[in-house]
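Posting for a labmate who doesn't have an account.
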Amino acid sequence: MDSSHFPSFLRVLLFGFWVLALFPEFVVSITRHYTFNVEYLNVTRLCHTRNILSVNGKFPGPRLVAREGDRVVVKVVNHVSNNVTIHWHGIRQITSGWADGPAYVTQCPIQTNQSYTYNFTIVGQRGTLLWHAHISWLRATIYGPIIILPKHNESYPFRKPYKEIPILFGEWFNVDPEAVISQALQTGGGPNVSDAYTINGLPGPLYNCSSKDTYTLKVKPGKTYLLRLINAALNEELFFSIANHTLTVVEADAKYTKPFDTDPLLIAPGQTTNVLLKTKPYFPNASYQMAARPYFTGRGTFDNSTTAGILIYKQPLHHSSLENLTLLKPTLPPINATNFVANFTGKFRSLANAKFPVNVPQKVDRKFFFTVGLGTNPCPKNTTCQGPSNSTKFAASVNNISFALPSSVSIMQAYYSGQTNGVFKTDFPATPLNPFNYTGTPPNNTMVTNDTKLVVLKFNTSVEVVLQDTNILGAESHPLHLHGYDFFIVGQGFGNYDPNNDPAKFNLVDPVERNTAGVPAGGWIAIRFKADNPGVWFMHCHLDLHTSWGLRMAWLVLDGAGPNQKLQPPPSDLPKC
């Protein structure tokens, strides 16, 4: 039949289908709308029932699914008594910093019975990220996965998996985590530790009163599964392994990596790792424990326990019951296996091919050297504290500045309105003001300075930051997260960074690109990024205790000259403090 006999609207429709069939790259991105209701939810774990904060009555929270290039609009409605914000961890937020979410940095929090709509576009990212609350310790229960699929007609740089499964690690407290951090900040001591780690919200059978709350992953023989691993725990880096199975790492923080096999692996809070799990070609006469437990090098107390789930092969009909299967258990590294961690993190490399090139800055405009670690504040007059001594409180800092957040305005609102007086200063030191032997004997004076100082960067500045751990109150691994950017990890090492010899060993060919990276205990990492995203961008340790103690700072990236190089105006529903 001649197409001229079709009505005109059908001809347009047919032409559209023909164009899409011939030119699939014309498939346009879409806008995806979500509503996140922050509400109370009764949850029982370890025989303790708590009224936790949740999103849409789910724990962990709902999946946010989008494709690369999509616009995402999330209306967050606060139905609880706490002030709330949500951070879309790892999303670049190009010129949309108002949607980033850290309280008092890019926005005032959403108050009770108020709402705020986060509006952002996903640019040049595909893989797994996470969303979580970004005020105090609310992310203990307010968290969930962000799953970014490739654009239509784009494929993974590995064979399409049979199935994709998000696996979120979390931390469970039998009491309200807000009471825990509030008490710790008051006494100046270390906080009470969590009562369990969880896999997809379930602690598993190794805890008392918990065997029914065990995550079970059912698989078929001879298939490849993509596990989207997310560490949403508050304060611990975690080792993870599945008994008798090797995992292949293919992506980290929504950036593809050169594939490598590992068993076990390490994942820090805020990090995501996509791994391929190839199941055995036959039905085995066993079930397999998957387990996660902490990596810890510090001096304080920590939750030294193990969360476990079960990997079960779906059995053929004629097979005997699952009860008769042998349970095989994985071997995890020792708690303080720093050498394993260094070897493991050193294996990550960017794909660095024609389709996924690496744009690591080869020359650097500005260099920074930041110490990260613990310190002390004096105890208020006529009180005793529970810090390192009874006259001090625990603190944490970057270049010995413990960052103080404003409380009556957000930093970016103050910057945008030009009313910065008394809100923040712009003289954050590029190097430590009082250098010392960072990984040797600590100095006698461990007091920090409390202030709100930023680093100002001109648009498109190439930046190098060396992050150096210190021995003050114990060497410790610090997973540092930078908002608004992915950065290249060009070098890492133990001991004090040597500016004369270490740069020669930097990898400027295929360094891994991440948004969260562990500063090694008693060591350093060097990162590079291009400041091509205007706004105020928080950088902090993703161990929430250290963030609360002040191990945080912020970068102010100025507008560029071009129309797409400027911070967008604030949305009309931006919350008021």
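Reply:
Got it, the structure tokens are right above this. The radius of gyration is 24 Å.
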